[in-house]
Write a structure and sequence with these properties.
single chain, 176 residues, mainly beta, elongated, disordered N terminus
Length: 176
């Protein structure tokens, strides 16, 4: 796991750079790949504790204005515990303006927890997530995002949590 996540992130970034378009494009267009780099704060509803950590995701839009697919990972830390969440979300996008987008989606999650350095659990879960994307310009190259999330863990205890992720957007465009 320690090698897989950095390797996957490196492959996504390299593929994005390979298909990135030069800054001299005359007309603005939707990004073909969007990277999300941010931080997450999570609060367990059932266990009454909080976690914080970094978050990374990559998003593509295979069906324009109909479907976006986001694959992401976050690492959450709290006293004596670490949790890795990996998810794939299927989202419906709406363009609110040339610089603001809203989408809502859901999808499966895999949760890997480690408590006190020895107790390890793996479980499946479900995430529901609305997202606001605010772009600096109409070219959709850089911006920021806010994602509130509800997660239901199907593992022992059926933990439920609420989280919010805030961070930077980096859009990559296809060459014509």
């Amino acid at each position: 796991m320690r090698i897989a996540l950095p390797l996957a992130a490196s492959l996504l970034i390299c593929s994005a750079i390979a298909c990135a378009q030069s800054e001299t494009q005359a007309e603005p267009s939707e990004a073909s790949l969007v990277l999300e780099l941010g931080g997450t704060a999570s609060r367990s509803i059932t266990e009454n504790n909080s976690s914080f950590g970094p978050s990374f995701a990559a998003e593509i839009e295979p069906l324009e204005n109909k479907l976006e697919i986001e694959a992401g990972a976050s690492s959450l830390f709290r006293r004596h515990s670490t949790e890795w969440d990996v998810d794939v979300l299927f989202k419906k996008p709406w363009t609110l303006s040339e610089k603001v987008e809203f989408m809502i989606g859901a999808g499966p999650a895999w949760i890997h927890s480690r408590a006190y350095g020895t107790e390890t659990t793996d479980s499946a879960g479900l995430e529901i997530e609305p997202e606001f994307m605010i772009w600096r310009s109409e070219s959709h190259r850089f911006g920021w995002y806010v994602e509130p999330t509800y997660e239901y863990n199907f593992g022992a205890g059926h933990e439920q949590s609420l989280a919010v992720t805030v961070g930077l957007l980096i859009g990559f465009h296809r060459s014509k």
